[in-house]
TrEMBL record:
Keywords: Cell membrane, Membrane, Transmembrane, Transmembrane helix. PANTHER family: PROLINE-RICH ANTIGEN HOMOLOG, PROLINE-RICH ANTIGEN HOMOLOG-RELATED. The lineage of its organism: Bacteria, Bacillati, Actinomycetota, Actinomycetes, Kitasatosporales. Its main location: membrane. It is a multi-pass membrane protein. It comes from Streptomyces rimosus subsp. rimosus. It is found in: Cell membrane. This is RDD family protein. Residues 18-127 form the RDD domain. The chain crosses the membrane at residues 20-45, 65-91, 112-131.
């Protein structure tokens, strides 16, 4: 049996700009991760409340505006920290994507924070991707970032070109 060439698999996309579908699937996965973190935080707060005040066990009841502010902060923090530290969120890792600063360098904390705020405030900016010549969302255009396929952690593999 012959060994498949790198051109047959995901390696052929290494370093290329990611499209709308891959980015949308990654974003949906990230929404689920943030919701999971929020539920765990709510259960943890309920457990602390139970230990301090006694029965009954109940998560805290927050006002709608406070829930919105905390949800915004949690989402922005999750995205910004993930993009600063590894360039990948859980969803991006799942889809083999990485957010980079052109030309392929890490995003940095300031750009990651601004990009996270833009992505949360204006999520429909993602739909600019198929209209852009370089598959960039509105957030990518503002902070000069790119979302690229990265199956090998920024390294070229089997003769493939490295990240841009």
């Amino acid at each position: 049996m012959t060994r498949p060439s790198p051109a047959d698999g995901p390696a052929r996309f290494q370093g290329r700009a990611a499209g709308l579908v891959s980015r949308t699937v990654a974003a949906v996965a990230d929404i689920l991760v943030v919701l999971g973190i929020a539920v765990l935080a709510d259960l943890f707060a309920g457990a602390v409340r139970f230990l301090v005040l006694g029965p009954p066990f109940a998560p805290p009841k927050l006002s709608d505006w406070l829930t919105g502010v905390l949800g915004f902060a949690l989402t922005v923090g999750y995205l910004a920290v993930s993009w600063t530290v590894t360039g990948q969120t859980v969803g991006a890792r799942l889809m083999g994507l990485r957010v980079v600063r052109r030309p392929g360098r890490p995003l940095g904390a300031g750009r990651a924070l601004l990009r996270a705020v833009l992505c949360v405030v204006f999520p429909l900016g993602l739909f600019w991707t198929p209209l852009s010549r370089r598959d960039a969302s509105v957030a990518d255009l503002v902070v000069r970032s790119a979302v690229v396929y990265d199956w090998y952690g920024g390294r070229a593999r089997d003769g493939q070109r490295p990240l841009p």
